[in-house]
Amino acid sequence: MTELTKHSHQKNSKYHYHLKSDKIYGDKKLKLCGKCIIPSNLSNDLKQLNKLTRNLNPEDEEESHPIDFNKDLIDFEVLDLTAERQSGLNLPLVFLPNDLFSFKQLKRLHLDCNMIRVIPDMLGDNLVSLEILTITSNLLQSLPNSLANLKKLHSIHLASNEFKQFPDVLCKIKTLRFLDLSSNKLESLPSMIGDLKNLESLLLFQNNLKSVPKTIGKLEFLRTLWLGNNNLNSLPYKITNLINLDWDDLNLTTNIDGNPLVDPPLEVCIKGLNSIREYYQNNNDMRN
Q1: Mean residue pLDDT across the chain
Q2: Cα gap 263→237, rounded to integer Å
Q3: What is the Cα–Cα distance from 132 to 145, expressed in whole angstroms?
Q4: Plot region of 34 (φ>0 → left; ψ -120 to 50 → alpha; else → beta)
């Protein structure tokens, strides 16, 4: 039996829609995780659906109502295909169905905790209304150049994947305000990262970074910078241009711990930008 219900947390709140099934429908259906499936022709029926999620809590006691397709279909803006954490099932997505790319009005797409290795070009070509894209805890090593078409994207979450090289296409998404590439295998950052003028949060914690380009100093709106647990032995003087950073030894929005820093030394860096600036000025070395 397949069930599609709507749930409301409180009166007058927007409904969240849940699709669940206890039956597998063969080649014409796409199995997502355990008892949850999306039929391959679902897009024909649900193009107007507001929110579709299979991230269900078995202890959820929200009020449920059957869906009336003639009354309840509205603009479809949020799709959550995150693998269910509570179920303990190990049946995640390994690819994205083509029907997904027909939802051109999508604003938020969540694909966390799956086993996706490739993001098709169709995502950037078709889902041009995307504002938030989360693909944490997958197996990605690269991104398609078509992501540069996402002119409204302001937040992308790519932590815990398999990136060894920084995806250069990200530097072409000038609307980005939040970028998370923590817990990957990055060894360097491109100088083009300085082109992300609107970036406010840059999370690069737990990679293999050996250096930071001096162009990082162009990110004048940056307020959060995670560089901890890398292989950095130096920081460029230009990093002191980031006057909006909340950086001191008591602040969690910026960190540098867990690096073999010698220029400036770690004990200097953890005290913040003023300490780094003073170090370079005292050593008459402000070239980098």
Answers
A1: 76
A2: 10
A3: 17
A4: left
Q: In this structure, is the dihedral angle defined by the CA atoms of residues 172, 173, 174 and 180, taken in order, positive or negative? A: negative
CB 231 within 8 A of CB 258: no
H-type alpha helices, the chain: 42-46, 69-72, 121-126, 266-269, 273-282
Query: What is the band of 194 on the pLDDT scale with cuts at 50, 70, 90?
Result: very high
- Asked if 220 and 242 touch (Cβ cutoff 8 Å), the reply is yes
pLDDT for 265 beyond 90? yes
Global model pTM greater than 0.90: no
Residue 217 has pLDDT above 50, yes or no: yes
**pLDDT band (50, 70, 90) for residue 159:** very high
Residue 10 sits at φ, ψ, to 5 deg, of -160, 170
Using DSSP's 3-state secondary structure scheme, residue 47 falls into: coil
Q: Please report the domains of the chain, with CATH numbers, ordered by start residue.
A: 59-282 (3.80.10.10)
Highest mean pLDDT among 175-179, 249-253, 266-270: 175-179
Find the radius of gyration of the CA atoms of the chain: 22
Q: Which residue bears the tokens 């997505």?
A: 93
At 176, phi and psi to the nearest 5? -60, 130
Residues contacting residue 23 through CB under 8 Å, at least 6 positions apart: 1, 2
Q: Is the dihedral of CA 274, 276, 281, 286 positive or negative?
A: negative
CB atoms < 10 A from the CB of 259, how many?
20
In this predicted structure, the answer to whether residue 18 has a pLDDT above a threshold of 80 is: no
